[in-house]
Amino acid sequence: MAExxxxxxxxxxxxxTAVINASVAGVIQEAGKHECIEEIxxxxxxxxxxxxxxxxxxxxxxxxxxxxxxxxxxAGLGTCRYKIDFKKKPEQASKDMDRLFEVFKAHNIRxxxxxxxxxxxxxxxxxxxxxxxxxxxxxxxxxxxTIDNDLPHTDHCPGYGSVIKYNAATVMEVAFDVSSMATxxxxxxxxxxxxxxxxxxxxxxxxxxxxxxxxPHIILMxxxxxxEAVFLAKVKETVASHKYCIVVxxxxxxxxxxxxxxxxxxxxxxxxxxxxSGAAERLAEIIQGKINLKTRTVxxxxxxxxAEHYASLTDSQEAVACGEAAVKAAVSxxxxxxxxxxxxxxxxxxxxxxxxxxxxxxxxxxxLPRDWVTEDGFLPNQKFxxxxxxxxxxxxxxxxxxxxxxxxxxEKVRIDKQLPPHVK
Amino acid sequence: MAExxxxxxxxxxxxxTAVINASVAGVIQEAGKHECIEEIxxxxxxxxxxxxxxxxxxxxxxxxxxxxxxxxxxAGLGTCRYKIDFKKKPEQASKDMDRLFEVFKAHNIRxxxxxxxxxxxxxxxxxxxxxxxxxxxxxxxxxxxTIDNDLPHTDHCPGYGSVIKYNAATVMEVAFDVSSMATxxxxxxxxxxxxxxxxxxxxxxxxxxxxxxxxPHIILMxxxxxxEAVFLAKVKETVASHKYCIVVxxxxxxxxxxxxxxxxxxxxxxxxxxxxSGAAERLAEIIQGKINLKTRTVxxxxxxxxAEHYASLTDSQEAVACGEAAVKAAVSxxxxxxxxxxxxxxxxxxxxxxxxxxxxxxxxxxxLPRDWVTEDGFLPNQKFxxxxxxxxxxxxxxxxxxxxxxxxxxEKVRIDKQLPPHVK
Lengths: 424, 424
What we know:
The structure is a homodimer.
Chain A lengths: L5 E7 L7 H12 L5 E7 L2 H6 L3 E3 L5 H6 L21 H17 L2 E8 L1 H17 L4 E6 L15 H22 L5 E7 L6 H5 L13 E3 L7 H15 L1 E7 L12 E6 L5 E3 L2 H13 L3 E5 L2 H4 L7 H19 L5 E10 L2 E9 L24 H7 L11 E2 L2 E2 L19
Parallel strand pairs in A: 1-2, 1-4, 4-5, 5-12, 6-8, 6-11, 7-8
Antiparallel strand pairs in A: 2-3, 9-10, 12-13, 14-15
Helix pairs in contact in A: 1-11
């Protein structure tokens, strides 16, 4: 097989994380080592920008900016939630796919890397298949990214370690605050974290517990339906023992009927999922209404996935390695794969990267195993703790300026467009 | 005047901060240098614990634990919101005051330090006056503490620098996230911060702005009534320019009728103030309903005042100095005063401590001056920025264990009770 020579395109998709830029840095820095890669381009706002031929020249960026991506949250190249949906919008999807390949051909893109979660790996998979169908020789490798930790086949996802590190630290700090105010009246604080279907993020806050009596006292995961009476009894019991109770709730918590506790069904996002805003607020109403306990809420929202200032160094290093591994796989002639993290040992923690066919990843969600949660369903157990603990080790060092983070910002020098505008 | 010799009692009151323990460390470490101070006691849960004679022996604590209070959030001694209220509950207040002095006499308390905000300085003031009236020679010094920054006479309050540092970093990170997702559809993120009456906390997030175009784009402060139409126009204008808009809202934001936007009047706290839970949620409903813009919310709640992991070193050092200054004032024979921070120079920032009669402090609230805010009321101006900028400089170093903060925890060895139980 003759060596493939051409340009590289890297893009980011879906909800950002604290380390998705670290993966892009890994792709770029590794790409610089391979002669078969001629130009290095970044696609702005994922597929959406590529459709509009919005490409930037990474070689115009300073090396220190690329290095700085390792401590910069969010998607430096911009991201999108645009989906090429052959099922729901087949005509648009065909048009989009034609256009993507026009862009790939116009810019001689032979190496394509897409960092994202389930939907994005699905997109990468389709592009890989279309490249073969269309006879456009191109290596397509997915780079895993999601705070939700719900991709299958990888031990865990880059982005996950950082979100649970920040959330666990926050739970610990809030618990210090609430317990220091706790008098005989008792009080409860509900902390809402992300996680629509999978409870990985909520579960991760268990790492804040060093003693049995430490917070969080209850973790409500979306996989386990809420039994209101049992939950209220557990809150009362906790307050009786400790004078306070810290509850972590995943935003997608459901009742026995499978309805989301905090869903506002009148609001839908781009993928048609209901916007969830109020699991903690809803539970606070229930607690105050039914057991008359002083209750406060915290909703971390986007802050948790962007919290670079307390990101996990382990997570960041793994994210970089995933980007590097993607490039190595592509230049060695592989395509249609996602990089995965393989745990080779838990204590002391050791890991390496591997590769998995994109077809095994796309649209498959990986949930918290039921036997990693205590029988009453209110806390993850030792199996989970052993799994999660190594992922939060170490702190990413973020430089500061005037007492605040100094993140890297790309110059984004545009590549001249070769094509007429995209007609949607 | 013969030198006063006896025991010291230090206690904490009101909502905790990231640095109220640093002030207690300052009191304790300074006290150790003065022979006139015999025993050093801590009162658990403020006045409430002192009424119940719940005192601990600080000399039983390890020196490294006391030093560790400088990087430990919340109230290490516990706190309370109990008020000795001669106006509303004169009988209970008289009984409580009698009891306090029984406790002071039983334990030969001659130096009393109370760290807290407005209500707590009021309590300290009453104790000072009662001590004179009752002929119990005792030095009473208030140590300022409040994230709200609403105490008069002091340049700013310990606790304030840390909360705005963390909040500004959070706004910066959330803005990176939201802007990286911003496409032509536009989006808005509302970040709710504390501040019931005063907008100091909300205003402080302006420090996240390095460029005119940076977030936060709009800051809604409780002192300035919301004009909904003007606000919505400003959001639309911001989204038109930047594709996204970050709004910071103080929890106590009011409409033109003076009603709190997010108040739930059915819930009252111990001081009879309505519990505020929903300014951001309420505004999100308005934005989505009236201009159909995708909107998300973040509610930092207790997390912001407990965020030791990104606390300001300047703030922490000032908090320690306030504790030390309180002890120095007391041993030099002064009483009935609160320590204040005096700014002697803004650039480069220089400060010292001073003293102010407690009577000048108690129950006086200090608001953000209107001429520190732009004419349209949506952002603090350069005067505020120059004031606030030095307060967030430097980071408190928190040791970690297993990737999470390792805070100090007091042993809390109890002093034997000398009195019968307190009858309320």
